[in-house]
Design goal:
Elements: E1 16-24, H1 30-37, E2 43-48, E3 67-80, E4 83-89, H2 100-104, E5 109-114, H3 123-131, E6 136-141, H4 151-158, E7 166-169, H5 174-196
Parallel strand pairs: 1-4, 1-5, 5-6, 6-7
Antiparallel strand pairs: 2-3, 3-4
């Protein structure tokens, strides 16, 4: 299928399609982020939270949350006529982490969403992408009422490598999310170029 549009009688552009993961802890805003930018109705696999899950689903800071992603979220956004991103939101709870290997297959890069009220919840995602050498960007989702910290303080708390981008964002805002996704693509391309470059001694 061709998503590109014809301009001035030119042939439609066959776009490059790239896969981006959206990861992070439980209730950090992954489903919201995918929904904010997707140009198609997002595919969601949400289920109601139940009493049975209460012992393992920590709702501290997200007491208003009533559903959770149990498989993935999927959306699509066209950044340019020749560039389409497929977005795959990962489930946040530990009991669903077995799905991450399948979802990360062929991914260009990832967004790790962080919530400063529950910063430790994104440690697992940061560790996952570091261990698998998948380039990622950390997006600090600025929730209303949450304390704001300087980016460098958050970076130190997460013990990020100097080359890992960290940005403040609003997962509800389309333009903010687009900036995050552009940042991931740019970082992933620079990461790939650096790995291709011969090491000089």
């Amino acid at each position: 299928m061709v998503f590109g549009r014809s301009k001035g009688g030119k042939h439609p552009v066959e776009p490059v399609t790239l896969k981006i993961l959206v990861a992070g802890g439980f209730g950090v805003g992954k489903t919201t982020l995918v929904g904010a930018v997707s140009e198609i109705k997002p595919l969601r696999t949400e289920e109601l939270l139940t009493e049975a899950g209460r012992p393992v689903d920590d709702l501290t800071g997200v007491e208003g949350k009533h559903t959770t992603t149990v498989a993935m979220d999927f959306g699509r956004i066209t950044l340019r006529d020749d560039l389409v991103l497929y977005l795959f939101g990962t489930p946040g709870q530990e009991r669903f982490w077995f799905m991450w290997d399948e979802l990360s297959e062929g991914a260009l890069g990832a967004v790790v969403l962080a919530d400063t009220r529950r910063l430790e919840d994104c440690f697992a995602a940061v560790d996952y992408f570091e261990r698998r050498s998948i380039p990622f960007l950390v997006g600090v989702n600025c929730f209303e009422g949450a304390a704001r910290y300087p980016a460098e303080d958050v970076r130190r708390a997460l013990d990020l490598d100097p080359d890992v981008p960290l940005v403040m964002c609003d997962a509800r805002d389309r333009e903010s999310v687009k900036e995050v996704l552009v940042g991931v693509v740019q970082h992933a391309m620079a990461y790939a170029a650096a790995r291709r470059s011969p090491v000089t001694t």
